[in-house]
Amino acid sequence: MPESEASATSSAQNTPAAVPWWVRLCRWLWKIAAGVGSFLVLGLGANVLATWLTSAHGIIPADSPLGVLVSQWPIVLLIGGCFLLLALLI
Q: Roughly how many angstroms between the first and final C-alpha of the chain, as a whole number?
């Protein structure tokens, strides 16, 4: 086998196969979902801070959604950890 043919076959074996269109689509959608999720988390943090700063007593009310989450912290921690592990696996 001539040297040019050997190098052509070896380079063809080293290049990955073309990625299917649906894989590219899923990668693109995952980036969008990560961006939207980041904006949601930042928006939630800004809203909690605004509520805390504008509250009459300077504390977050116990009947607010955040107050309920803080009172149920073991469940929130467990579910949040599961979501984090799921995100790391995907």
A: 44
